[in-house]
């Protein structure tokens, strides 16, 4: 199935700013409608009552430098 990216933003933020963004997202998820907005994009999506929720923590190691990077991902999936 081909993937169509509808919205993406990536920027450095403080832990406090990230926590605030997640708090706002949690409130929107609870209502069932999420509004995603950046300087160039604006999307709204309705989330069903019982989507699949995945939490993933990864450690990646750069093969050349040995430097480790961590990724913490929260993912909500549904069909519709």
UniProtKB/TrEMBL annotation:
Pfam families named in the record: Amphi-Trp (PF20068)
Source taxonomy: Archaea, Methanobacteriati, Methanobacteriota, Stenosarchaea group, Halobacteria
Protein name stated in the entry: Amphi-Trp domain-containing protein
Domain of life: Archaea
Organism: Natronosalvus rutilus
All copies of domain Amphi-Trp, residue ranges: 1-79
